[in-house]
Amino acid sequence: MAQDRALKNRPQYALTSVDHALRLAVMLQVEGPLSVSDAAERLGVARSTAHRLLTMLVYRDFARQGDDRRYHAGPVISLTADAQSRTALLRTIAMPHLHALVGRLGESANLLVLAGDYARFIGSVESTQALRVGNREGMVFPAHLTSGGKLMLADLTVDERAELYAVERWRGRSDERPDVGALERELDVVRERGFAINKDRTESGVTAVGRGVRVGDRVGAAVTVSMPTVRFDESRLVDVVTALALTARDIEHDLHAALRVELGV
User: What angle in degrees, to the nearest 10, is found between the helix axes of 47-59 and 16-31?
Assistant: First the structure.
């Protein structure tokens, strides 16, 4: 039952304006201020459309307009300045590497971070193939079902995982709580392999392979490639995992360098 509830497919009658507004809210929350032009470019819409969306977010306190005329996260969704700046820095550094990964493999690429017991997509680059996995930026899925989420969970301590999956934290959604023993066994395999696979567990018809990204001394993020399951073949796994490892290494290198500059060391 928990697996069925986790499946997340695009609604048949998706409301594009709602989707755009929600994506903007997430961008403001995790990346920081946006101008109208920035918002229009990211969504692929006209400036007038972006302005209307941002105005509605301001009206509902999801955004606020600063003296610089840019839009900032409003009181409903504001993160601490440190959390926002670090997430924004990670995304900025990772995006060129995600584009390169898409170029290498021809499949969509993503960057995820852990948010409690969920994995949040903070960056996404779509493949150019006609049949492809779409942009996942801003979406969240149960961490124990996603390839990237499993990599980050595997790096937590036993006590940290026990706290995340304690029965009392899952009141009201106990039927979605994973079998902790089975999860621990699965995470043992993930640690041994150094990568994780999610085949049809969060979205039917979608397979993802992930690799962890070290942020400081922890696996604080993950990079993944997502593809239609019909195109997933285990014969590709070595190439996919190798490309992911190179991408994770390059992101870690650039992030370490940026943090050293930020700290003045």
Answer: 70
